[in-house]
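Hey, quick one: can you model this chain's 3D structure?
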Amino acid sequence: MIDYDDEARNYDASRGGEPRALAAAGAVELLLPQGPCSILDIACGTGIVTRRLLSSERVVVGVDRSPGMLSLAGKRVPGGVVRGDAMRLPIASNGVDAVVIVWLLHLLPDPASVLAEASRVLRPGGVLITTVDKDDAYFVEDSDIAQVTAELRHQYAPRVPDSSARVLGWAAERGLRLAGRTVFPGTGQGRSPRRWREVIAAGHIPWCSRATEGQVTGVCRRLAELPDQDTARPDPLYQLIALKA
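Sure thing. Here's the predicted structure for all 245 residues.
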């Protein structure tokens, strides 16, 4: 797991910065309830998205377990952040109208406990908004990187924690229905073949962490053989779904 206290200072710059945050918040806006409402942003990080959800009609609270992240979020959302674990939220049951979870589920071995906590704090009729299928966001199917990585990704795809099928299955079992879906671009986050090899070597790619050493070595070799090693491929296209309680 990434040390987010250590990452906090450079987190935004390394992950699309303000353009990505603007796109993410705009997509969340499309799925939020209309009119006055209270919103809980789980794993709010630096608050770069959280602050864009604020309005005169909304009460927005961000929660994160990283003090380093919260030190930055507190400057962006003064008085609106709290330290807490996503699996034990410091929020009363039936306490908020909307829960937002952006770029968290893909980091968890099993997202069920976090989703259950999100559902617990949601009022009847409220909406749970979360990113899904994060790893797939980078792969335009006709791109050379998508082709090089396809076999390994597809072999291990059923095991990814944030697959939309898995999240929707969990929701259906608990009486939550799909109420909306949208996408947004990770502006400036398209990776070059060389960058893909670096990210894989750092252990940040879930399907590579589940593959054998030989499989990973083979993919990296094929990535190294691609042309334009330092040319970024298309930006990722992230998916958001809304689940209605």
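One thing worth noting: The two ends are 31 Å apart (CA to CA).
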